[in-house]
Amino acid sequence: MEIGQENERRLAKRTPCFLAGRYTSKESYFCELGCEDISVKGVKVFTLSPLKVDSYLRFDITTKKRSLIPVEGKICWSKKAVHGWHSGITFDRDLSFDVKKII
Fold this sequence. Notes:
- The protein is mostly beta strands.
- The chain has a single domain, classed as Thrombin, subunit H.
- It is built from no helices and seven strands.
- Strand 3 and strand 4 (42-47) form a beta hairpin.
- The N and C termini lie far apart (30 Å).
């Protein structure tokens, strides 16, 4: 089942990564996510539950140095994966650093 559309027209090159993160659900539970690729403009994440397309999500990404980066963005697409969901998120503001430095 696919929700929204996976748009391949990217404005910035995404870099493959394996970063952990977390967000707070509507029920105020912490939920884990995994970042699979990232750019200054957006990220592809893996979650156990679907994220609602066209909604906004605030979440933290844990860097390789164990610091947290708070980010926020719009969920552009969500697609069922084998053991969860993949989603594409466009950041509200471009990241101000080279993403290769955090992976």
